[in-house]
Give the backbone structure.
Amino acid sequence: ASDESMFEYLNVVSKMFGSEAEGYEFYNKYALEKGFSVRKSYVEWDGSNKYIILRKIVCSRQGRI
């Protein structure tokens, strides 16, 4: 992979957001620009089960046959 594509990859996958909606909006827009779509996947909650602390957003076809 070129240095440019590696930089883009690291920049995209290492982002952090203030809300789940903000992150989903960013990745959905990015995916559409690249020609695919995304969906919400795995989620982790804090100890009190009130707040999401991790949400995976994956290719909409990930894990499907």
